[in-house]
User: What shape does this take?
Amino acid sequence: MKAFENVRGMRDFLPQELAKRRFIESKVRECFQIYGYEEVETPIIEYFELLSMRAGEEIRHRMYAFKDLGGRKVALRPEMTASFARVVATKLRSEAKPLRLGYIANCFRYDNPQMGRYREFWQAGFELFGSSRLEADAEIIIVNNDLMKRLGFSGFFIKIGDVRILRGLLNSEGVSEDDQNTIMGLVDKRKVKSVLTFLEQKKVSDGCLKTVKKLLELRGTDCRKILEDGKRILSQNERSLEALEDLEAIINLARVGGVDTTFLVDVGFARGLEYYTGMIYEVFIPELGIALGGGGRYDKLVELFGGEPTPAVGCAPGIDRIVLAMEKKGLFSGQLSTINRVLIIPVGDDLSAKALEIAANLRRNGISAQNEVVGRNIGSALSYADKKGYAYAIIVGPRELEKGCIILRNMKVKEQKEVHLVNLVNEMSLMTRISLKSI
Ligand code: AMP
Assistant: This one.
């Protein structure tokens, strides 16, 4: 017989691992509610053309793309923004704006599997459509920051930049959009030498080369100083200057909105996706060198997909990496709630029916009850209950039942007592309230 393994890069989520993801999802949904983001689901499969239009070279090449049986060129979604822009361009075209939409979704990229990089991964998302104002940019940062706080993080930081800073400069040198995209891809990977070589080949001025070099080094947590330095370097470039001014305003608005997190302004910052048109950011913890999530402004995507001109800004916290970060920081401890379950063990086959009846009654009253269904004796049934972390066992024995009673055993303290069936639900309701259990 053949033993099958997972397909490379694909993971099973066993109960304890899934519980971590579910915990994060519950906090994401808390934020959806508090900030008014309505959850939407879109299909995993989309047209390749839609997904690839502004995805950027890197992601475009890593898509699970194939022809379906009808000959359509399709792909598994590598991210969610394209699908949301499609929905806003079509089905939600005439919906009142601004529109706040949220999602929790699995995405697929044929990345090289490594720590924090999987071929199937989960993103949460907050997308705000219909506002070009800086308050909207700030709102996305505020939500993302709040989510991190609700998950228990402190000491994380937000790296922030704006694609217009570099693009503004490259535009003024007449660098084509395609070439700009190539450059932004290299900048995203911090390949400074390759950026400069590429620009030399494109025959940009020496002044531009020097400026790009300076910009790629310009980053720091003293936001005011970095932004002032940026403005000095780019004093001749209106579009870049505007981006720097906007960044300053966004940071200030986020601060007013309760973000007390460190900002690292990175003037030479780019993200892989090509649809960004303004502010971009990523969230990090110092202990992990990979972004826990990121986002930015993408004002042209809805229009590109045939919709009304709709400015938009959004973010995608990466759930898998947040799990890693929470594990690293010990943030799951005491957070994952488990239900106190009870195992009902009949003493002998004759009492199986009675055990089923008791279980049904407990469940009707909201208590998690399972029957012993493999005909084990009490000793091995109790040992099973122990291994599986049952909080209680109910032993249904003939002698007690004659008196209308069962034995209720507390598995943790290993104590037991007789309880009358009439009082069982009451007794159990008190004991089986959700309890916090660290893992
Ligand atoms: P992006 O859509 O590239 O902006 O990514 C947003 C977030 O999704 C990243 O910051 C990561 O947290 C997460 N992410 C992206 N690619 C992967 C991957 N291959 N595996 C796990 N998480 C990922």
